[in-house]
C-alpha cells in the first residue's frame, strides 16, 4: 500500500488575506470493493481515488491558478498544475484527485483531477517530501510521506476542520473520507466575494506630543518582526507630523511604528501606545475615515501586541465531567498578558457536549471524550486544546433505539429488513461522499435498495429526538 503522513502544512498569504492550508489527504484508499471509491466514479483505483483537499482560510478569494503539486523535490516530478482562473472562495475547498472522473456534488467544492499523469498524484512513502509550489516554483506547502499507519484504508483529516490536528477519518465519524466537505459531511463555503478595489489613501498623524522619537512608520498587514511589501510613511521636516499616501486593497489597513523607546516610555501616550515585539507598535485605520487622532494611528482597542501562545485547561485543572448534565468552565491562558484575551471556543463532538462563547462546557449526550479547542481572535491564528472525559451520563434516546435496532442481511443484495424501528421513522440512503440517493418514511419493516449499484452506503434513520446511522454493503 502507498502511504504518506502529512506532518505539517505551511500557511502562506497571497492577495492580502487569502490563505491556503491542507485540510485532508487520502493516500491509501481502501481496496475492499468500492470502499475506496473516493472520487465517486464507480471504479476503485489506488491512484485515481487519492486526493488532497485545500481550504482557503482567508477573507478574500484565493487565486490558485498555476499551483503545482510535486511528488518529490529531489527525485520526483511535477504531477499536476491547477488550471488558470481557479478561484477558491473564503472558507471554501479545492479538491485535487489523482484521476478518474469525479462524480458527485462534493459539497459544492472546486474539484479537479490529475488525469494527464499516468500514476496520478503518486503519493508514496519511503521518505519523499510532497511539495506544493506556486506558479513560479516557490515551495509554499509540503507534507512528509513517512508512514503514520501501515494500511489506514481511509484519509487523514484535521479534526476539527481547518484548525485541528490530523487523525484517521474513521476515528470519530462513520465516513472513510469527505473530499470537499467537512468531516461531518456538511459543505464548506462556496460563494466567491467581490475583489477588493485598490485605492489611494492619504494619511496624516500628529505624533509631536508622543514624548519619544519615532524613526520609521509603515503600513502593512504583516505584524511579524520583519516588514515585507510595506509602504513607508514619512516625516519630511522632522516635526513628528507623519504624512504619506499609500495604495490599499482592503477595508482595514494595518500600521506599525518603530520608536526609540521602551514600552514603559510609550505609556505616556495613553492606551494606544503598547509595544509589540519590543519597539513595534500596531494599530488599524479604516480608509473611509480620513481622520487620525494624535499619538496613535486609530482605535485604541486594536493597539495591542499579538498573542505568542495560548494554553487551554478546565477550571482548576479539571479534565472530567462526571455528573449527569454537568458543566465545566474552560479557561485559556494567552501570553503576553497584554494581548487581546478574547477566545473563540469550539468542541469537536457537539452531540456529546456544547460550549458557550464564554467557555462553559455542558454535557448533553452520552459518555465519551471531547476535545475542546480555544483559539485567539487577534489575528495571530493560535489555538490550544484539551481532552475532557464525560462519564455517568444518562443514555440518550438515540443510543437506546440504536441498541435495539436490527438491520439484516448486511451485506445484502437489495432488500434489507429493519426491526424495532419506531413508528414514522425517516430513512435516508447516502453514499460515502454524502449524496442522498434514496429517502422515505418506513411503512413496513423492510426497505428495497436493489435499484442502487453495488457499494458501501450509510443508512440514516431518524425520528423525533433521535438519529442512528449504520454502514450498509450492497452486493447484487
Description:
This protein has 476 residues and is mainly β. It contains two helices and 34 strands. The strands form nine sheets. Strands 1, 2, 3, 8, 9, 12 and 13 form a seven-stranded mixed β-sheet that branches. A hairpin with a 6-residue loop joins strand 26 and strand 27. The longest helix has 8 residues, at 397-404.
Descriptive terms for the model:
single chain, 476 residues, mainly beta, Immunoglobulin-like, seven-stranded mixed beta sheet, 2 helices, 34 strands
> Could you give a short account of the major beta sheet?
7 strands, mixed
Unreliable stretches: 1-17, 220-229, 250-256, 258-304
The quaternary structure here is single chain
Average per-residue pLDDT, rounded, comes to 75
Text of the CATH class of the largest domain: Mainly Beta
Structural domain tally: 4
CA-based shape: globular
CATH-defined superfamily of the largest domain: Lamin Tail domain
C-alpha-based Rg, rounded? 27 Å
- Portion of residues in beta strands equals 35-45%
Distance between the termini: 28 Å
Amino acid at each position: 500500500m502507498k502511504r504518506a503522513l502529512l506532518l505539517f502544512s505551511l500557511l502562506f498569504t497571497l492577495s492580502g488575506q487569502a490563505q491556503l492550508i491542507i485540510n485532508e489527504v487520502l493516500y491509501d484508499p481502501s481496496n475492499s470493493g468500492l470502499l475506496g471509491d473516493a472520487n465517486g466514479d464507480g471504479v476503485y483505483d489506488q491512484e485515481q481515488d487519492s486526493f488532497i483537499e485545500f481550504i482557503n482560510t482567508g477573507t478574500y478569494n484565493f487565486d490558485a491558478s498555476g499551483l503545482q503539486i510535486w511528488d518529490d523535490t529531489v527525485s520526483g516530478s511535477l504531477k499536476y498544475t491547477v488550471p488558470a482562473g481557479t478561484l477558491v472562495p473564503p472558507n471554501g475547498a479545492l479538491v485535487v484527485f489523482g484521476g478518474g472522473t469525479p462524480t458527485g456534488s462534493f459539497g459544492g467544492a472546486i474539484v479537479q483531477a490529475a488525469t494527464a499523469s499516468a500514476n496520478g498524484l503518486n503519493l508514496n512513502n519511503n521518505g519523499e517530501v510532497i511539495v506544493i509550489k506556486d506558479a513560479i516554483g516557490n515551495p509554499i506547502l509540503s507534507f512528509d510521506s513517512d508512514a503514520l499507519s501501515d494500511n489506514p484504508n481511509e484519509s487523514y483529516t484535521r479534526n476539527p476542520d481547518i484548525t485541528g490536528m490530523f487523525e484517521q477519518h474513521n476515528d470519530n465519524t462513520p465516513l472513510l473520507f469527505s473530499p470537499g466537505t467537512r468531516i461531518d459531511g456538511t459543505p464548506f463555503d462556496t460563494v466567491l466575494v467581490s475583489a477588493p478595489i485598490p485605492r489611494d489613501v492619504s494619511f496624516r498623524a500628529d505624533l509631536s506630543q508622543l514624548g519619544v522619537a519615532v524613526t520609521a512608520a509603515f503600513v502593512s498587514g504583516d505584524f511579524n518582526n520583519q516588514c515585507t511589501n510595506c509602504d513607508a510613511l514619512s516625516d519630511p521636516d522632522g516635526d513628528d507630523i507623519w504624512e504619506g499616501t499609500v495604495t490599499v486593497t482592503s477595508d482595514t489597513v494595518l500600521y506599525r511604528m518603530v520608536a526609540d523607546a521602551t514600552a514603559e516610555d510609550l505609556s505616556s501616550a495613553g492606551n494606544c501606545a503598547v509595544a509589540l515585539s519590543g519597539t513595534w507598535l500596531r494599530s488599524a485605520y479604516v480608509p473611509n475615515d480620513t481622520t487620525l487622532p494624535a499619538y496613535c494611528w486609530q482605535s485604541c482597542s486594536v493597539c495591542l501586541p499579538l498573542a505568542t501562545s495560548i494554553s487551554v485547561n478546565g477550571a482548576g485543572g479539571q479534565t472530567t465531567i462526571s455528573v449527569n448534565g454537568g458543566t465545566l468552565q474552560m479557561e485559556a491562558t494567552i501570553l503576553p498578558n497584554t494581548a487581546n484575551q478574547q477566545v473563540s471556543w469550539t468542541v469537536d463532538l457537539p452531540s456529546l457536549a456544547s460550549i458557550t462563547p464564554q467557555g462553559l462546557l455542558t454535557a448533553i449526550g452520552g459518555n465519551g471524550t471531547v476535545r475542546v479547542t480555544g483559539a485567539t481572535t487577534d489575528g495571530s491564528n493560535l489555538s490550544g486544546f484539551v481532552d475532557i472525559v464525560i462519564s455517568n451520563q444518562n443514555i440518550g434516546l438515540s443510543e437506546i433505539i440504536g441498541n435495539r435496532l436490527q438491520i439484516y442481511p448486511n451485506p445484502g443484495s437489495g432488500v434489507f429488513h429493519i426491526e424495532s424501528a419506531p413508528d414514522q421513522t425517516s430513512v435516508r440512503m447516502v453514499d460515502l461522499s454524502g449524496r442522498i440517493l434514496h429517502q422515505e418514511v418506513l411503512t413496513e419493516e423492510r426497505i428495497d435498495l436493489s435499484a442502487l449499484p453495488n457499494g458501501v452506503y450509510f443508512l440514516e434513520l431518524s425520528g423525533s429526538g433521535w438519529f442512528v446511522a449504520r454502514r450498509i454493503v450492497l452486493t447484487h
